[in-house]
C-alpha cells in the first residue's frame, strides 16, 4: 500500500520494520520556503529500504516513509519535546540541517498553524500505520516486535563529538523491550568484531521506540542507528556501495532473525 506519507508491505510474522527517515518527497507548495541546499535532502536515511530488502522474505511488515524528514520528523514527539535535553536537537518540523545551518529562507520557517497541519497530514498517518501493524502482529502472535531502522553520517560535529560507533542500539535505557531480547541482540553485536557498537548511549531510541515499545503490553521495540559509511557514500551523490553493504547486511539479517526466534516464553 502506498500513500502520501508512507508505504506498507504487510507480512504475517510478529516483526514490524519501521523506516521513518527514508522519505524524499517535499510537497510542491512547500519547496519555495526551503533554501536550495535543502532540496538535496542530505540528512535523509538514504537507501535503507535497499539495505533491508531481505525483510520482506522474512515475512516482516515494512513501513517506509515517503515524505522527507525536512517536512516533518516522524521520529519526534507530537508536542515537539526535545528527545535529548541539554544536547543539540532537531524539531518536529526541523528548521536546521544536521550541520546547524537554517533549512529555510528568511522568515519562511513553518508557523505553529503549519506545524499542526503537517502533523495531521503526515505524522499521524505514519504512526497510525505503525500502531495498526503492531496490533495486527500482537493479535496473531500474542506479541509484536518493532525494529526502527535509521542511518546517519558518521561525523556530524553539531550533533555529537567525534566519530559515531558503527552500530548504535537504542532501547530507551532498557525500557522499550524485554531484557532478554535486548540481551540477545547486544550479545550478538558484541560477539562480532567487524563493527564498533554502542548500546543506549548517544542514541537511546527516538519517539517511535519510546512510545510504541511497551513490553508490558507485549510490544518490544529496538532502534538501530547505523553509520552510513557502512554501506554508502556519505556525501553527495550519496551512492549505494554494494561491496560495503554486503558486509553489514548479513549481520542485520541475523539480528532480525534473533528477534523472530525470540518469544516471550523465553523469559521463563
Separate helix tally: 6
> Kindly, what is the distance between the CA atoms of the first and last residues, rounded to a whole number of angstroms?
38 Å
Number of domains: 1
The overall strand count is 7
Keywords:
268 residues; Aminopeptidase
Could you provide a short overview of the structure?
The chain has helices spanning about 30, 50, 110-140, 180-190, 205-210, 240-260; strands at about 5-10, 15-20, 60-65, 145-150, 165-170, 195-200, 220-225. It is of the alpha/beta class.
Task: Write structural notes for this entry.
By secondary structure, the chain is α/β, with parallel strands linked by helices. It has one domain (6-267): Zn-dependent exopeptidases (Aminopeptidase, 3-Layer(aba) Sandwich), CATH 3.40.630. The protein is built from six helices and seven strands, in the order E-E-H-H-E-H-E-E-H-E-H-E-H. The chain has helices at 28-31, 48-51, 112-141, 179-191, 207-212, 242-261, and strands at residues 6-9, 15-19, 61-65, 144-152, 167-170, 197-199, 219-227. A seven-stranded mixed beta sheet has the order 1-3-2-4-7-5-6, with helices on both faces. Strand 5 (167-170), helix 4 (179-191) and strand 6 (197-199) form a beta-alpha-beta unit. The longest helix is centred in the middle third of the chain and has 30 residues, at 112-141. The chain is globular, with a radius of gyration of 18 Å. The model has no long low-confidence stretch (mean pLDDT 94).
Helices and strands in order:
Elements: E1 6-9, E2 15-19, H1 28-31, H2 48-51, E3 61-65, H3 112-141, E4 144-152, E5 167-170, H4 179-191, E6 197-199, H5 207-212, E7 219-227, H6 242-261
Amino acid at each position: 500500500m502506498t500513500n502520501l506519507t508512507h508505504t506498507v508491505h504487510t507480512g504475517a510474522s510478529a516483526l514490524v520494520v519501521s523506516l521513518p527517515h527514508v522519505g524524499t518527497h517535499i510537497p510542491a507548495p512547500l519547496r519555495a520556503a526551503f533554501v536550495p541546499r535543502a532540496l538535496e535532502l542530505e540528512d535523509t536515511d538514504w537507501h535503507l529500504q535497499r539495505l533491508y530488502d531481505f525483510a520482506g522474505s522474512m515475512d516482516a511488515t515494512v513501513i517506509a516513509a515517503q515524505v522527507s524528514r525536512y517536512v516533518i520528523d516522524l521520529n519526534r514527539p507530537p508536542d515537539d519535546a526535545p528527545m535529548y535535553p541539554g544536547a543539540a536537537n532537531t524539531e518536529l518540523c526541523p528548521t536546521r540541517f544536521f550541520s546547524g545551518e537554517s533549512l529555510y529562507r528568511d522568515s519562511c520557517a513553518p508557523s505553529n498553524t503549519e506545524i499542526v497541519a503537517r502533523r495531521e497530514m503526515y505524522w499521524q498517518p505514519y504512526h497510525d500505520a505503525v500502531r495498526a501493524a503492531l496490533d495486527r502482529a500482537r493479535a496473531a502472535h500474542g506479541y509484536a516486535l518493532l525494529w526502527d531502522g535509521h542511518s546517519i553520517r558518521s561525523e556530524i560535529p553539531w550533533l555529537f563529538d567525534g566519530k559515531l560507533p558503527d552500530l548504535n542500539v537504542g532501547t530507551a535505557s532498557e525500557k522499550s523491550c524485554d531484557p532478554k531480547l535486548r540481551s540477545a541482540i547486544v550479545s550478538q553485536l558484541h560477539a562480532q568484531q567487524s563493527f564498533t557498537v554502542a548500546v543506549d548511549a548517544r542514541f537511546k531510541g527516538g519517539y517511535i521506540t519510546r512510545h510504541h515499545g511497551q513490553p508490558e503490553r507485549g510490544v518490544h521495540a529496538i532502534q538501530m542507528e547505523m553509520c552510513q559509511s557502512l554501506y554508502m557514500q556519505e556525501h553527495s551523490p550519496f551512492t549505494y556501495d554494494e561491496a560495503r553493504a554486503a558486509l553489514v547486511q548479513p549481520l542485520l539479517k541475523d539480528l532480525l532473525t534473533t528477534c523472530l526466534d525470540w518469544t516471550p516464553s523465553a523469559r521463563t
